[in-house]
């Protein structure tokens, strides 16, 4: 009854996140507990060598997702959703959506998945002395300039997916600082785009004679907690096609999936971080100070509050490991044994903990695709051993778990050895951590830091953006986002914490020497074996 009353009175907050394959909505109560959910499956399209989603895809997906959430409210609480305390939108970071002065999209949405801006990335990284990944919005804009694309002269505004949806629902051309940090480099002191780099970009493209300056076509940067506009009458009809939702709802700054992941794992405070490990793996470490120089292996972004974050992203994590587990599953079926898949994973993962700390001299690479951290454009999964290696099931499973984090550790070692970056707490989430304790223990050894897994980590980015909207609505004067999350969201959350074992740490370091030396074998495989 209390929840029903909260829904009727609008004492709720809605978060919606656009993932690469699923759009998810989460409605939360005043204590940030999910009370209703909705979802919508969608897929990107590969058209004219571009990965994209159409505008029809975007709005059909948003409306379908909202409708399912609203139906969940009606079914569960017997009331129609008309009022909401605040709303937040999040999406896949990066990409490129340019519009003319009439608000018309000039070219199809170019998502983060497009690796078509290599030339622009190299030029801008050198010009700014700041790493500009290919997927960043500014790289897409400059590549379009280098390509001589006709539409560039007509650009009046460009933004990301989350920024676009927010703009259409509120009329405000704004962006959360975490999402902004995937568009153009951020000055964390000013909490805005780097002024010097904006000037450098204008000077770079001046000979083209475009009628715009870069400042004029970028969205306004906002930090967590700031008001970012209200839902207009037109926006309410766009979001809720039933016409039941009332206009006037405040919105928080639109954010990217990296920022909402930090919020959902309570990893926004300095010296904390989170690692998402599944098909791919990435680590986000919140820094105490800026890095001394740029590294091609490290992307620099920010938290939703504007603190510097070093991001290490590896394309390959558990795919090859899963394939080996699938092989054991085939063997079990062949001898007539029926084994539950979860039990099989649990048994094999736990077996790894019985192995030698350095994997007994075994070596593996799970490179199904290329790996930019170790400078591979293609990959070949490999397993290698010497005649003197200790070849056992425990060591075999352990080396496949170690190597799932090998490329990631290569990037993390740059931060620890060259920049002295230290972390007090790491939050793990994703498939690698489904078997309790095992993935955590391996990651703790790789990072030489405590690793925790929280019950709420599975709530995901839609919950994360709902937390950011709740913060805007509920924060006290001077209350930081980190303090708000600590005291009012995660104070009673349960987490399993694993401390690094000194022998495991030493064993992982020994393995990494073998891993680095063996990259020559991986390169030979790429060169010698056609895919």
From TrEMBL:
Record CDD domains: ASKHA_NBD_FGGY_BaXK-like
Keyword Kinase: yes
Biological process annotations from GO: carbohydrate metabolic process
Carbohydrate kinase FGGY C-terminal domain segment(s): 274-472
Keyword annotations of the record: Kinase, Transferase
Residue span(s) of domain Carbohydrate kinase FGGY N-terminal: 13-239
GO MF annotation, one: kinase activity
Any Pfam family the entry gives: FGGY_C
Family listed: Belongs to the FGGY kinase family.
PANTHER family in UniProt: SUGAR KINASE, XYLULOSE KINASE
Protein name: FGGY-family carbohydrate kinase
């Amino acid at each position: 009854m209390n929840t029903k009353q909260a829904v009727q009175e609008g004492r709720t907050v809605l978060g919606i996140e656009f993932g690469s394959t699923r759009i998810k909505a989460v409605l939360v109560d005043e204590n940030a507990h999910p009370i209703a959910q909705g979802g919508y499956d969608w897929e990107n399209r590969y058209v004219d060598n571009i990965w994209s989603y159409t505008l029809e895809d975007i709005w059909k997906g948003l409306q379908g997702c909202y409708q399912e959430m609203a139906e969940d409210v009606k079914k569960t609480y017997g009331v129609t959703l008309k009022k909401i305390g605040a709303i937040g939108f999040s999406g896949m970071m990066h990409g490129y959506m340019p519009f003319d002065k009439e608000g018309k999209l000039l070219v199809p949405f170019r998502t983060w998945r497009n690796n078509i801006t290599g030339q622009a990335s190299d030029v801008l990284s050198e010009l700014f002395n700041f790493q500009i990944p290919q997927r960043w919005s500014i790289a897409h804009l400059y590549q379009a300039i280098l390509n001589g694309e006709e539409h560039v002269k007509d650009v009046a505004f460009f933004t990301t997916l989350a920024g676009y949806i927010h703009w259409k629902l509120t009329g405000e051309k704004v962006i959360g600082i975490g999402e902004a940090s995937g568009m153009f480099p951020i000055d964390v002191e000013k909490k805005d785009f780097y002024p010097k780099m904006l000037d450098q970009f204008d000077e770079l493209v001046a000979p083209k004679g475009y009628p715009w300056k870069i400042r004029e076509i970028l969205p306004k940067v906002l930090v967590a907690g700031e008001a970012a506009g209200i839902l207009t009458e037109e926006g309410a009809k766009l979001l809720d096609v039933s016409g039941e939702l009332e206009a006037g709802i405040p919105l928080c700054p639109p954010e990217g999936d990296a920022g909402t992941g930090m919020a959902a794992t309570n990893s926004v405070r300095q010296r904390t971080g989170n690692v998402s490990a599944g098909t791919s793996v990435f680590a986000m470490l919140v820094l105490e100070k800026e890095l001394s120089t740029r590294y091609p292996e490290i992307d620099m972004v920010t938290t939703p509050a504007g603190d510097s974050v070093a991001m290490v992203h590896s394309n390959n994590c558990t795919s090859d490991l899963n394939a080996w587990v699938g092989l054991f599953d085939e063997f079990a079926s062949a001898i007539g044994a029926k084994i539950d898949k979860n039990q099989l994973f649990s048994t094999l993962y736990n077996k790894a903990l019985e192995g030698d700390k350095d994997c007994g001299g075994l070596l593996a690479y799970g490179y199904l695709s290329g790996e930019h951290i170790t400078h591979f454009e293609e990959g070949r999964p490999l397993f290698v051993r010497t005649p003197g290696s200790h070849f056992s099931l425990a060591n075999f499973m352990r080396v496949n778990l170690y190597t799932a984090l090998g490329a990631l550790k290569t990037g993390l070692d740059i931060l620890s050895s060259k920049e002295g970056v230290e972390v007090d707490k790491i939050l793990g989430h994703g498939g690698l951590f489904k078997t309790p304790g095992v993935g955590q223990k391996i990651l703790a050894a790789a990072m030489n830091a405590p690793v925790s897994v929280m019950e709420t980590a599975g709530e995901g980015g839609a919950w994360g953006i709902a937390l950011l909207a709740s913060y805007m609505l509920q924060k006290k004067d001077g209350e930081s986002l980190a303090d708000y999350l600590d005291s009012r969201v995660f104070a009673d959350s349960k987490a399993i914490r694993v401390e690094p074992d000194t022998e495991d740490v030493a064993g992982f370091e020994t393995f990494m020497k073998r891993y680095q030396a063996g990259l020559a074998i991986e390169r030979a495989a790429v060169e010698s074996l056609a895919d």
